[in-house]
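Form 7-S
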Amino acid sequence: MQSEPTDQDSTPISPVATLVWAATTASFLVSLANVWWLAEQIGIGRIRDLTPYWILGRLFHYLDLPFFLAGLDVANAHFDLSLTYPLLQFVFVAIVANLGLALVTVLVPLLLVMYVSRNFRLNDAHEAIHWFWGSSFPLGMFVLFLHPAILRPIHVAFEGKQKSLALGVAIVVLFVLWLLLAVLLRGRGQAGRFLRWAGWSAAGLGFAAMLVAGGARGLQAKARADAAPAVDQSLPNILLVSIDSLRRDHLGCYGYTRDTSPSIDGLAKEGTRFEVVAAPSSWTLPSHHTLLTALPPTEHGVINDGMRLSPKVLSLPEVLWRAGYSTAGFISGPYLDASFGFSQGFDRYDDHTVSGAAGVESHRVVTSPGLYDLVDGYLSGWDDDGRKRPFFVFLHMWDVHYDYIAPPPYDRMFDPDYDGAIDGHNFIGDHVHPEMDRRDLEHLVALYDGEIRYTDFYLGKIFDRLRELKILDDTIVVVTADHGEEFFEHGKKGHRGNLYDETVLVPLVVRFPAKVPPGSTVEQQVRLMDIAPTILSLADLPIPESFGSVHATGTLAATNLSPLFTPGTSEDPEPLPASGDLEGRMAYLRTDTSKLIHHFERSRIDEFYALDRDPGEQMDLFTEDPARGIKARKELLAWRALHEASLDRAKQMVLTEDQEELLRSLGYIQ
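Output:
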C-alpha cells in the first residue's frame, strides 16, 4: 500500500523563492532594529548608519577601497528621529535600503542555485544543494540580518573591553540562534512555509510603511511650507566662519610677526576686530554648540563625548530660517557631525562630502579646496535660482587642526631652512613632547602657521566670490574659532587638556559696512556665546525670548555686542566676565584683569592669575592672595549652580564605532 504523503513531503522547496522571502523578512526586521537603536541612542538616521551598510563600509575600508556610498547625498541625508514625520520617513527609507542590499546579497546564491539545478542531475547532490540554499542558508542569513539587535547590546556590554571578545561572543550567539531555528524548523517544508509567511508579512508591513511614510513626508513638507514666513529680501546675507584650533595670537591683525592671515587681516581693516574673545571650552563640541545656541556648556549640557544637543534647544539657524533665510552648513571635522545635534534648522547640512570622505584619516587630509567648491556651488545655485531668499552659510574650516601638513609651498613658507625630522604628521605621537629639541618645536609651530596661511587663502577665495556676485557689502561676515592650540606653554600640546588662554582665547572679526565701522578694535572682553545675538541684531531681527540663556538676568548671559560698534552710547554693555568648562573636570572664570581655574578633582589645587601683570599665566597667586581666589571661586560655583539646572537640555547618545575610531585617531578618547 502506498503511504500517505507527509506534510513535509507535500510542501516542495523552491530555493529561489525561499531566498527572496528570507531577504524580504530579514531586511524588514533589521530595519526596525536599526531605526529603534538609532532613535534611542543617536537621534539621527542616515542610510550610511544602517548596520548592513556600516559593515559593507568597513569591508571596503579594510580592503583599502573607496566606498561607493561615501559621497552620495542620498546615503548621508539625515533624519531627525526625535520628530514623528522624519522618523516615519526613515522607517521606509531603511526598509527600502536594506531590502535592496539584501536582494543583492542573495543574487550570487540565486545564480548558483539556478546553475546547479540546470546542470547537475545527481539526486544526492541535488537534494543537498536544495537543502543548503533552500533552508539552511536563508535561515542563517535571516539570523545574521538580526545582528543589530544582537551586536548592539553586546557592544554596550563589552564597552571598554577587547573588541575581539565582543565579536566572538556575537558570533557564538548568532550561531546558537541559527541552530535553534534550524532545529525548530527541521522539516524543510516548515522552513519554507515559515519564510514564506514571514516574507509576505514583511512585504505587507513594508508596503504599509511606505504609504505611511509617504503621507508623513507630504504632511511634513506642508507643515514646513506653512511655517515658512514671508521672505524679506532686504535682509542681509550672513556668512559665519569657524576655523578649528585657530589661536588669535597667530594672526597678523592680532600682532603676529609672520604673514599668516592676509585675508583675515584685510577683513579686520574693513571691519571690527575684538581683542579679547573667550571661548567656553578648549575643544570643539561644546564650543560650537555655544556658538550656535548662545548657551554656555553648563546650560546646553553637551560637555562630554556621547552627548547631543536636545531638539528642544533653539539654535541660530532655526531662528534665521523662521525669519526667511535659506540656511546651509558646510562641515569638515568629525565633531560637527549631524548626530551631535548640529543640523537643527539647516535646509542643507553637508557633513560628509569633505569630512566623511576623510574617514579615520581626517587629520591627515586637506579639506579647504573641497569646502570652497561646496560654498562656490551653493552660491552659484543661489544666484542662478534668482536669489529668492537671503542666505545664512555656516562654514567650519578644519585644516588648521593637527596634523600640520599643508601642501607646498605652505609647508615650508615660514621655515624653509629646516632639515630635521619633524614633518607635521602624527602630532599626537610620543615624538612631540615638552622636552623635544627647541628647533624641532619651532618648526612644528611654523607648520601650524603654514596651515593658517593655507586656510586663509581659501577663505580669501570665498570673499572674492562674494565680491564677484556683488554681495560682499550686503553680507554680515563673521570669522572666529572654537578654541586655540597649546605648544607646551603649560606643559601640554594641542587642546582639550587645559583652560589657559592659549586654548580659550580666539579671534573675532566682523565686517558689515552698513553697521560695523572699518578698522576699529573693541578692547573689552567678550565671549563666543555673544556672537549669535550680535548677528541677529546686525540683521535687524528680534532676539527671541527662548533663544540663548534662560537666565537672561545672569551676569554671564549671552549679550548683544552691537553697541560696541558705536562706543560711547548709553547702551554700552558692562565689561563681560567669561566662564568655561572642560568636561566637568575643571572650569574657569575670567575678567579683564584676573582669571581663576577651578579644579573639581580633589588632587588638583585651584589656580589664580593676575592677567594685568601676568598675561602668560605663569605665576599662580592662589596661595599668595587667597582672598581674591576664594571670592572668584564662590562667584564661579554660584553661577554654575544656577545654570547646571538646565543640563537636561542635552541628550545622551552612543558613539558609533566609526566615530569612536575617528576620535581615538585624533587623540580625543583613549
